Amino acid sequence: MTTPSLLILPGDGIGPEVMIEVRKIIDWFGAKRDLHFDVAEALVGGAAYDKHGTPLHDDTMARAQEVDAVLLGAVGGPKYDALDFSVKPERGLLRLRKEMDLFSNLRPAQCFDALADFSSLKKDVVAGLDIMIVRELTSGVYFGEPRGIFEEGNERVGINTQRYTESEIARVAKSAFELAMKRGKKLCSMEKANVMESGILWREVVTEVGRDYPEVELSHMYADAGAMQLTRWPKQFDVIVTDNLFGDLLSDLAAMLTGSLGMLPSASLGAPMANGRPKALYEPVHGSAPDIAGQGKANPIACILSFAMALRYSFDQGTEATRLEAAVERVLAEGLRTADLMGPEGGQPVSTSGMGDAIVAALDASI
Ligand code: IPM
Ligand code: MG
Q: Which of 27, 117, 224, 357 is catalytic?
């Protein structure tokens, strides 16, 4: 069997420093579990712009299409705020998502026991929380045409278009139902069918796809009500499926239920490649956090857990993924805390690399 290939794109801000910790984990799996990866690294976002004048070089795009999985850190920073829209760091990420056709974005929101006190919500509301948001990632208002800023009479008008085809809705719905089958067999679809035609179609198509999954209990909610229910009693949900923009908002909201954005991984999956693996990109949900970059304060856990998702969804290594997740849980239970996790009850402060080393030590203890 050929060694699976990984393309690492550390990106900007805290991206590179959290990725160094992920490299420690990848090396550990090679050394201790005989699980080897052929790892290459390239630039994305502002880092790529600085070197090549584009947030994603064509060679990097081509490489991303070939590898078994891409692991991305974060993109963006104030340094690039004034750049033209077409070369902003975020365009690099959006191009990867679009050209790899990564239509299904899995964003788990899981509350670790050790951090239940950390949420801005009451402990009993979030303790044990484990939900999965499936966000459509390649269509909708993020990509719909027409778009732009146009002259109309004597003023300008900004236009974006929410557009979904039946097949785009059906394929992401199918991936959400498949996931629900492996979890609690409950799926809630969120749109705004009360005001948007695209929402009406969304609801119809999800319902049709659901006929193939009679075991899954399907419900529908308007996305605004969904946001309210997510903060009121999030444990009523198992899997949520929603469009690109609502998914962007609702996943940040769900992330905060767990206490820190620094904890949450994501997987963006597309169609299967010739070798049966899905096209895939894994990235932490947090951004580039330029305010703390380079100070050893960043929490590497979201990025490490993104690699755990890669083990599970790209490399069929569910047991090893669980081992890594358990190692993270263990260091948190032992009280180790990066700055973002330092609540009123304290804990043992550790740096970015201190957290990575502790997780490696916990992995060692697991074998
Ligand atoms: C996300 C981010 C991106 C998005 C940005 C960086 C383009 O907020 O992954 O949620 O809006 O999709
Ligand atoms: Mg977002």
A: 224
Instruction: Give the predicted TM-score (pTM) of the model.
Output: 0.94
For the segment 31-44, the average pLDDT, to the nearest whole number, is: 98
Q: Are strands 186-191 and 217-222 parallel, antiparallel or unpaired?
A: parallel
- Assess contact for 242 and 133: CB atoms under 8 A: yes
Q: φ, ψ for residue 233 (rounded to 5)?
A: -150, 80
Is 98 assigned a catalytic role? no
**Residue 255 clears pLDDT 90, i.e. is over it:** no
Question: How far is residue 220's CA from residue 311's CA, in Å, rounded to a whole number?
Answer: 32
In angstroms, how far is CA 105 from the centroid of its own chain?
7
CATH of the domain at 84: 3.40.718.10
Closest C-alpha to ligand 1, atom 10: 248
Residue bearing the CA closest to ligand 1, atom 11: 248
Nearest ligand for residue 94 CA = 1
Model pLDDT for residues 65-94, shown as the tens digit of each residue? 999 999 999 999 999 999 999 999 999 999
Query: Where among 219, 241, 257 does a domain terminate?
Result: 257
Give the number of domains in the chain. 2
Q: What pLDDT does residue 82 have?
A: 95
